[in-house]
Amino acid sequence: MDHNKRSAVSTVPDAAPIRVGFIGLNWNKGWALKTHRPAISQLSSQFLITALYDEDQEAVVTTIQKLRLVHATAFTSLEAFSSFKNIDMIVVSIRASKQYEVLMSILKHSATNLSLKYLFIEWAFGSNLQQAQEIYDATAQRRLQTIVALQGRKSPYIQRAKELIHENYIGEINSVEIAGNACWFGYERSRKFAPGMFEMGNGLDLVTTTFGHTIDLLQYITESYFSKINALIFNNIPNQTLVDDLGNPMGRTVPKSVPDHLLFHGSLQRGNIPVACSIKGGKPTKKFTKNFVIDIHGTRGDIKLEGDAGFAEMSNLVLYYNGIRANDHPAAGEKLSSEQGKEFMEVYHLRNYDAVHGNIFRLYQSIADFHFNTRKIPNLPSHFIMQGFEFEGFPTLMDGLILRKLIDSVYRSSSLGSTLDVTNTLQFAFM
């Protein structure tokens, strides 16, 4: 049986749902409310929120009441929350700059909590590589099953592109070109954004987020890490014009130290494939071109992924495939029929797919599939270190740590002005 296929929709289990303790869920704002909460609600037979933490007593109680989390206990102490026995999985959906302190506290105070089995963390799980490494080491010591929100891997378009390549529909890959837009880091800044998003060292910048998610998807699709990289990073917009909610200038500028442009070149380990990538900050526009494009060129076909924004992990995409079907080649000694060898084109687009919600939903689905083993996969482990390039499963902190090391190398390459050999990134990640 080939398990390297897309995850099926989870069936309703007979067992009790996974009990979730949540950090970062607020009743009237935030990413967790927009994505995690709907996913859990739609999978109510598989997940149940049983605990909620917020240092603000009024905020946590109000959220429980407003969202009608009737099974949830309120906590204002991380120690009490982490040691709560009625939790199977903790979800931490807060900014990267705050993650390290919170996660290290959770891992410390949950040491004797045998009920806790899963830890689900937003990308980038820390402000820098050192924090990410320490978080990973601590979770590995606790033997928790980790999940990191590189949810773009669950996009149906990414899965379809991966299938086409995996099943040899485009032959050997010749080259890859990527272009993306990171709108937050251009000439204007909305007043609703926190200043920390635009300061280096907080783990939320063009390279770590926009490039990070995108390049993770490319490695996942092509089933290869990088061997050599070269990067140039620019901050040519040190000050941004502050605008109101309608986009009108407010008459003042604010500083920005994070990059607004990245030029990246590299070669994939598998096949020594050249990759060229350009990520720019600025207001997206559809007038001239799409704001997100991945072109994958093969010996027998091409794949193009397009989107309206540079955030592939939460954008609805369109996939174009042009080539020759894998089974259209005659066997040795057979003649080519009139239908075989003809060029084939596919346009794949789910008109009603909501990627913001859908990719996170599918990520939770895969956790449920793993926990309840609804597809009865033989020899399924009770714990796994990384997803790697498998269709099944979900990205873990090891997958995230490997990506973090690549991002660190991108910054080093730009700083040193040289090409770096990153072949041993995977090896060092396990050390």
From TrEMBL:
Superkingdom of origin organism: Eukaryota
Gfo/Idh/MocA-like oxidoreductase N-terminal domain span:
18-148
Recorded GO molecular functions are: nucleotide binding
Q: Which residues form the Gal80p-like C-terminal domain?
A: 156-307
Q: Which Pfam families match?
A: Gal80p_C-like, GFO_IDH_MocA
Q: Which PANTHER family match?
A: CONSERVED EXPRESSED OXIDOREDUCTASE (EUROFUNG), GALACTOSE_LACTOSE METABOLISM REGULATORY PROTEIN GAL80
Output this protein's name.
BN860_15522g1_1
